[in-house]
Design a protein that fits this description.
130 residues
Length: 130
């Protein structure tokens, strides 16, 4: 299903709360181009998980008219800044969960996948690229 910006208590239920105008300026096309590139080099997670992250990213992009999202572009291969940003954006004190699409030249290490709960966060997508 499609997802939007969700209050924390409804995030797990996967319900969209209202419609929000898109504030994107051509970024969805850049992200879509990244999704079409296939590059399996350096993948540390299994193929099914990799596919899940890309599918989530595509769902977030497709739903941009109903729910604006954040694109986090990491040009280095570390996940330190990404991890900090995602942790801060998912704090319980925040009223909403904003969808995030991460563009990074490397797949996240398994420790980061676990730490950020990436397997279960349906509003967090990842595309390998920069």
């Amino acid at each position: 299903g499609k997802h939007g910006i969700l209050p924390k208590h409804r995030h797990q239920k996967g319900k969209v709360v209202g419609k929000h105008p898109s504030r994107l300026v051509g970024i969805q096309e850049h992200v879509k181009d990244g999704l079409e590139e296939e590059d399996g080099h350096g993948v540390e997670a299994d193929a099914e998980l990799w596919e899940t992250f890309e599918e989530r990213a595509q769902q977030i992009i497709d739903n941009h008219e109903a729910a604006p999202f954040i694109v986090f572009l990491e040009v280095e291969s570390t996940w330190k800044r990404i991890s900090l940003f995602v942790k801060e954006s998912r704090k319980p004190c925040l009223p909403v969960v904003v969808p995030i699409v991460i563009l990074c030249p490397t797949m996240p290490p398994s420790s980061v996948i676990e730490q950020l709960d990436m397997q279960d966060d349906e509003l967090l997508g990842f595309v390998k690229g920069s």
